[in-house]
């Protein structure tokens, strides 16, 4: 810790922020840490601390942030950087998170979600950076945490049977022209920037894992949000808003949406179990029932009936006793 503090001091030494006050900002599930720096005149910036020895790499964040700004969206400006040390000083977008605004005033939910959909519509017409592709094989491979951490008692043969069945559906999820997908596109990574207009009113965060992939992916991410409940009625309304703007075939889009929703939420079940069992972050267990609900919502789509038959017997239901069992196995503190 002392060595890292020295690296940060050196990083800030030749900037206006060397003597700024530092206050922690809530982070995410990764090893990244964030501090708000407050200068004597009240100006602020955000320090991103992403230690390379924990597997973090800030270079994708820099690349995607620059691209998003170039195509007319609001990503933080990079004020100072040392990629080798895993340190960035970035523009501060404030604290007006969509999740907090909606919690304070539920009437803002639809306007804010429409604004988020407008960003995704804008991405349809913009150029794409050179990034890896979220294709059918990627979708299949990324389900692995489900069986590694959440449904650990499923034998290899049953896993293989489900994967084979899912593989036949994955191709249907990646139809249409691929777009830039930000992947962690949800209400705690979006901020309202009231001094901006149009799509620039939406401040974007946590996009370093972006890929090129199916257009429905980020809409699933925000409408099937593991961190806050989104009602089926709101979900349907925003999907309809998106379809009216894009002209996509509703049946094809909604089948892709349901397959992607299933894939994404199965992966999240595994990741949340891993965050508890491996990393000592038991709080993520409390969100598992909501994710389970999204899984069931997607399996109810008529086109996913065959998947439901294969998958349903394999998934442990997140009963209170099952969740308590996960928490009892949680280490007392995170493993470095």
TrEMBL record:
SUPFAM superfamilies: Protein kinase-like (PK-like). It holds the Pfam family APH. Transmembrane segments: none annotated. Residues 23-241 form the Aminoglycoside phosphotransferase domain. This is Phosphotransferase. It comes from Sulfitobacter geojensis.
């Amino acid at each position: 810790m002392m060595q890292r503090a020295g690296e940060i001091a050196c990083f800030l030494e030749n900037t206006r922020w060397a003597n700024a006050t530092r206050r922690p900002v809530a982070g995410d599930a990764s090893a990244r840490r964030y501090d708000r720096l407050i200068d004597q005149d009240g100006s602020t910036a955000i320090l991103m601390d992403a230690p390379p020895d924990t597997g973090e790499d800030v270079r994708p964040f820099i690349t995607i942030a620059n691209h998003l700004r170039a195509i007319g969206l609001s990503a933080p400006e990079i004020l100072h950087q040392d990629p080798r040390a895993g340190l960035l000083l970035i523009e501060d977008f404030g604290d007006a998170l969509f999740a907090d605004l909606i919690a304070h005033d539920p009437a803002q939910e639809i306007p804010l979600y429409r604004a988020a959909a407008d960003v995704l519509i804008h991405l349809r017409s913009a150029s794409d950076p050179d990034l890896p592709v979220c294709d059918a094989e990627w979708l299949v491979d990324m389900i692995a945490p489900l069986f590694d951490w959440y449904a650990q008692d499923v034998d290899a043969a049953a896993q293989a049977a489900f994967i084979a069945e899912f593989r036949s559906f994955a191709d249907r999820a990646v139809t249409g022209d691929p777009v830039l997908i930000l992947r962690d596109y949800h209400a705690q990574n979006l901020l309202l920037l009231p001094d901006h207009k149009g799509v620039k009113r939406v401040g974007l965060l946590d996009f370093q894992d972006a890929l090129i992939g199916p257009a429905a992916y980020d809409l699933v991410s925000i409408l099937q949000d593991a961190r806050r409940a989104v009602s089926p009625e709101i979900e349907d309304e925003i999907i309809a808003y998106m379809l009216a703007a894009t002209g996509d075939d509703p049946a094809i889009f909604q089948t892709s949406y349901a397959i992607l929703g299933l894939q994404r939420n199965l992966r999240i079940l595994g990741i949340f179990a891993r965050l508890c069992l491996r990393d000592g972050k038991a709080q993520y267990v409390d969100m598992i029932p909501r994710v389970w609900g999204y899984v069931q919502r997607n399996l109810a789509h008529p086109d996913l009936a065959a998947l439901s038959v294969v998958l349903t017997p394999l998934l442990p239901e997140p009963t209170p006793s099952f969740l308590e069992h996960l928490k009892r196995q949680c280490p007392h503190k995170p493993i470095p």
